[in-house]
Structure formats: C-alpha cells, structure tokens
Amino acid sequence: DTGVSQNPRHKITKRGQNVTFRCDPISEHNRLYWYRQTLGQGPEFLTYFQNEAQLEKSRLLSDRFSAERPKGSFSTLEIQRTEQGDSAMYLCASRSWDSIYEQYFGPGTRLTVT
Amino acid sequence: KQEVTQIPAALSVPEGENLVLNCSFTDSAIYNLQWFRQDPGKGLTSLLLIQSSQREQTSGRLNASLDKSSGRSTLYIAASQPGDSATYLCAVYGREGAQKLVFGQGTRLTINP
Questions:
Q1: Is the minimum CB–CB distance between B99 and chain A shorter than 8 Å?
Q2: What is the pLDDT of residues A24-46, one digit of tens each?
Q3: Alpha carbons A109 and A3: distance in angstroms, whole number
Q4: Cα separation values, B44 from A23, A51, B11, B112, Å
Q5: What is the SS3 assignment for B63?
Q6: Which of A45, A87, A90, B107 has the fewest CB atoms inside 10 Å of its own CB, making it the most exposed?
C-alpha cells in the first residue's frame, strides 16, 4: 500500500514563471485536499475535491491558482505568474468515503520563488 | 470562524520526562480532532484521531484527550525520547459537511539527551 505521493518534492522558480505540482492520493480515496504551509505556521486549506468535482475553494486561492482532478484520481495544482509570497510548502491529503474523516498527508512540495 | 491555538509554541525538556501539549479551539461543534507530527521539511504524520463522541485515544506512549465543552485537547507523551523531537500540530474537523481541517500553529518540541 503506497501512501499519498507528491511531485516534485522541491521546486525553485523565478518570479513570474508558472509552476505545476502533482498529487497522487491513496488508491480508492475519493476525497482530495490541498493545503499551503508557510514557515512556522500550521497548514491552511486551499481546495477540496470529491472525485473529479472541486467542491470548495478557500479565499487564499487567488485567480492565479487553479486545481484539477480530471479523472478523480491524481490532482494538479498550477500557480501562474508566481510571486515571492507564493513560497511555501504545498501539501496534499486524501481520505476515503467513510465516516471517520481521517486525512492522510503526502510529503509536500517545497516551492521557492526567487 | 473556527480558530485553533496551541500553547506553548516551543518546548524543550530533558529525555525521560512526561509532557503535555495543549490545543484549544473556539467552536466546540467539531466532528473530530487529529494530532499530527511533522519533522523538519517533511509532510504530516497522523498520530491520533479522536471522534467527537470520544474522550480520549491512546497509541503507545501517546494519549490524547478531548473536552469539547471547554474547547480543549491535550496530547500527553510519556517517557519522552530524543526521537520525539518534532513539531506537533492539532487540527479540528468542522461539523459534518465542512470538508477541511483547521490547524493550530504547532508546538515545536525538543527532547534533550
């Protein structure tokens, strides 16, 4: 059984460039979440998918951010025209349909915008 | 709006001590509460999950309690070891249908040999 995987693990980009991150959830988990974590803070919710449907988005998710989960399996998070303030750890989590609601997190993608 | 606070922000203790980490939340209408561990530069590892109907959960040297009415949870670590050094985060899940975890800022724990 593999856990949640994320790629790449680290990304360094110049301001103004576009970046895309991928998350592969635990197989058969139909719920998928993206969170962002800045240094010294707890993660903050960005967006949530149930199967392929994006059901909730945070106000943190500006127009430069877009997330997809085209076939209800893996998900991508794209940031357009990156800014230095986008530097953070981007975490993906998944959970099953059961009633316990336990979320399982991936290792994260560390983004540095120079 | 749900807010989660963890005190203290950092804690340093000698090896072998028992310790308690605190978590408080403003809205008592939660569905469950999770405690996580995070090593530097890594993702989150789930330690314990307490459902709203439960008072505590135990796993090895860890015990987590939940008092919904007062909006508090504690994580008790027995016989601490240097390998327990990490940041500990608590997160609450809102009422069923609110599909996200709300996290505290974490407690950075250092166990000195």
A1: yes
A2: 999 989 999 999 999 999 999 99
A3: 15
A4: 15, 23, 19, 23
A5: strand
A6: A87
